[in-house]
Amino acid sequence: MPVRQLPEQLVNRIAAGEVVERPASVVKELVENAIDAGASRIDVFTDGGGRRRIGITDDGSGMTATDLELAVERHATSKLDNEDLLQIRTLGFRGEALPSIGAVARLSITTRHASEPHAWSLSVEGGVKARPMPAALGQGTRVEVNDLFYATPARLKFLKTDRTEAEAIREVVRRLAMARPDIAFTLAGEERAPVTWAAALPGAAGRLTRLGDVLGAEFRSHAIEVRAERDGVLVEGFAASPALTRANALGQYLFVNNRPVRDKLILGAVRAAYADYLPRDRHPVVALFVTLDAREVDANVHPAKTEVRFRNAGLVRALIVHALKEGLAREGRRTAANGASAAIASFRPQLAPRPGNWDWRRSPSLPTGPLPGFAGAATPAFAEPDQAVFDVGAPTADVRFEAQPPPDLLDRPLGAARTQIHETYIVSQTRDGLIVVDQHAAHERIVYEKLKGSLARNGVQRQILLIPEIVELDEATVERLLARDRELASFGLAIESFGPGAVAVRETPSLLGKIDASALLRDLAEHMDEWDEALPLERKLMHVAATMACHGSVRAGRRLRPEEMNALLREMEETPNSGQCNHGRPTYVELKLSDIERLFGRK
Predict the structure, then answer these.
(1) Which residues are 234's β-sheet partners?
(2) Does residue 404 contact residue 416 with C-beta atoms inside 8 Å?
(3) Among 47, 220, 235, 602, which one has the highest count of C-beta atoms within 10 angstroms of its own C-beta?
(4) Domain range holding 308?
(5) How many whole angstroms separate alpha carbon 150 and alpha carbon 43?
(6) Is residue 165 located within the same domain as residue 138?
(7) What backbone torsions phi and psi does residue 453 show, to the nearest 5 degrees?
């Protein structure tokens, strides 16, 4: 078959296949054009999930008649001052969006530039362009896209339901609204009630306001500000405390020079920063903004401009990890504070019985004999059989505490220990409330941080077992453990082969005291089975430390003396990230006295 030049309309439809994947792609390109035009307000309207109609109105700079006629030609753009693709400072730059949309839909553009006496309108249907005509419009641009993919009916078969396509449009607008809090957005359509995000003030406060409007009040209450800067790269934004998580990574919003992106490097950095705080099946909620020189990032990697490539990827990753870890460590007790509202909500005050529902004859305090002052012999107020009603069993708390705790301990962040409940939870008192501590989770974080600190300084101190402990495992598990024996030895756990299907434990970390070596090795083997070769050594070591910390911590069910409880509280106050254990569970919950009084109707 001879080589031939493809017709222009077919070329445009092929290009549209890369740029216009679905209605949300059209909305993304048009809203980005409005942002690049300097708009302060953008209104988005859709019908039929965007396939019947898409309308975008902005108050930006608009276009002249000459620019309008050229804007619907392929590779025509006003966003590149020169031919340097390393100096891209706008969201759009290829000049493919409008001609690609016009090739597969009915496109109508009405625009007015400040230098023009009136507006101009132009339409493109199936790639056929009409001449500009005078129109009526204030300054700005209005773009309408009707009957999307009518020129390429086969593409319609790949679209999902109207509701699904409308949700994809909503997600696109949400991301762009988060990127530019200084712009007011309105999203309306047949599938949804109108949503308006007012323009916010500049700075971190305004950004948090917009993020709270888009992501909800729950994110705003859990948000921790993060910021780090080095060598011209700035990372800032907000990360939710470990108390707010998702079952997937869709709650992670990433922006590079205000461009919404999905970058594996940044997602990996976020996962690494939260590794000490979350369970393996939970994901954090973050909104991070990376700002750097345009020459240090390549935005011309993907046709949809959703991926970027950094010149110094290691620096960007390190800054993100540092910013998140610093913010999480600074707000280490936010988990407990945020958990208080959920704890209060879990209480259900017992309503008083309504009149007529109470039978006085069923009262446990009713005397069995004649009442005093009446005929017959007087009987005790509570007969012996009735006393059984008040027998609720032995107390589950250690109440052998002095009536008043030392005043200086009440002023400490975690207060003074007052009792232990169910041999698992420590209750402490502060000046303005009380705190409930999970003793195992708290001690687990303490041991974990000590292991990390000891490893960073001079290695973990070991204790040699007088008689090596022999642990029998299946051969595959033994092979996994022996393959990592050097990494385990760095944490003070020395193991060696003891014949087929057995491991001899000769040394254990002294920090853990007496441990169940068999259970520890089995847990370590399970974690190692999930590792891949790409997982950094540091992450692998932290997995080992977390598993060891769990086995070396004070277990639930162990009765503690008052001085042990107070010592645990003091260690928590000095330990970084003590608001949650290294599996992501909260270590304590704080209840303010005002909340408790509100429960009982005292306020």
Answers:
(1) 229, 291
(2) no
(3) 235
(4) 204-331
(5) 24
(6) yes
(7) -65, -40
Q: Name the domain boundary from 197, 218, 234.
A: 197
pTM: 0.69
Say whether both 162 and 221 belong to one domain. no
**Are residues 250 and 279 located together in one domain of the fold?**
yes
- pLDDT tens for 591-603 read 888 888 888 877 6
Length of the chain: 603
Q: What percentage of the chain reaches a pLDDT higher than 90?
A: 32
SS3 content of the chain, % helix, strand, coil (to 5): 40, 25, 40
Q: Quote the longest CA-to-CA distance of the chain.
A: 123
On whether residue 337 sits in a domain, the answer given is: no
Shared domain check, 584 and 490 = yes
Asked, for residue 132, whether it belongs to a domain, the answer is: yes
pLDDT in tens, 289-339: 999 998 888 877 766 667 788 889 889 999 999 999 899 888 765 555 455
Token look-up 């035009």 returns 37
- Interval 451-471: pLDDT, tens: 777 766 766 677 888 888 888
pLDDT of residue 533: 44
Whether 181 and 215 map to the same domain: the answer is no
